[in-house]
Amino acid sequence: MIQRIQTVFLFLVAVAMILVVLFPIWQQVNPDQTMMLTLTAWNLEKIDIQTQQVIESEGKFFIGILAIIAAGLALFSLSQYKNRTRQMFLNMINSLVMVVTLALIIWTSHQANADFRPEVNGAFVLGFWAIFGGMIMNLLSNRFIRKDEMLVRSVDRIR
Fold this sequence. Notes:
- The chain is α+β, with helices and mostly antiparallel strands.
- The chain has helices at 5-22, 61-78, 84-116, 126-158; strands at residues 26-29, 35-39, 43-48, 54-59, 123-124.
- The two termini are 21 Å apart.
- The model has no long low-confidence stretch (mean pLDDT 89).
């Protein structure tokens, strides 16, 4: 049913993945405090701190596309409440998409860190941590969907 707790969790997964698209994921400042490297879901930008101008920009659109796919899968799974096995399968695929997104973010930030300032790590910000929130909400929704499926099967067995 649409009013179950897993609906709230699936909606929160979609919100978390939209946060990944909207907010920065990773940032690092050079030792002179003159330039900052910022990774978003769409690009990796080198910004002059004094003028706030973008010095260099490199497209990283694959992170944004995967985050939108994960949000779309969560919303589609939310609408599949009548078929719980399909809903669990969609949530498994969504977990895989989120893990791939997380791995690409870590790999991209590691590569950018090696080029910009390898002796110090950058800081992961809201966009990065939103993925973990989405993964936790996805696991919780799967747990409650499985719980509902077991309840339905036990009632069918009694009949």
